[in-house]
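Here is the promised in-class demo. Please do not try to memorize the tokens; focus on the logic of going from shape to residues.
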């Protein structure tokens, strides 16, 4: 179960990172789907949540839950070890807080310049 949670955590992180990059590319390529309000506001909520928990000094609930399921030990499966290496880095906490806050600000600014729109149909 911990590996499933780890993969879910990785997918959420991927959504946060790739979502904004895809909006930038999509704005230039004129992709209509990148203006979908559900996508854009869910993306904004996800990165604001991550940035807020970092600014408040709280650990991610998914990280805590995964650690609880593993009993404090690292992953012991092939997939778990690889996804863990992709998701977790050993760096100062201030660096992550700065990156998360910057990504949240970039997401908000992008929402202003590339606004979400409902489609008629």
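The designed amino acids, position by position:
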């Amino acid at each position: 179960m911990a590996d499933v949670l780890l993969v879910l955590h990785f997918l959420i992180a991927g959504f946060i990172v790739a979502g904004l990059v895809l909006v930038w590319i999509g704005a230039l390529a004129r992709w209509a789907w990148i203006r979908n309000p559900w996508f854009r506001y869910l993306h904004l909520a996800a990165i604001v949540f991550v940035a807020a928990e970092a600014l408040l000094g709280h650990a991610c609930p998914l990280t805590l839950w995964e650690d609880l399921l593993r009993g404090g030990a690292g992953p012991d499966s092939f997939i778990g070890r690889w996804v863990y290496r992709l998701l977790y880095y050993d760096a100062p906490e201030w660096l992550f807080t700065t990156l998360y806050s910057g990504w949240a600000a970039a997401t908000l600014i992008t929402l202003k310049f590339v606004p979400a729109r409902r489609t008629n149909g």
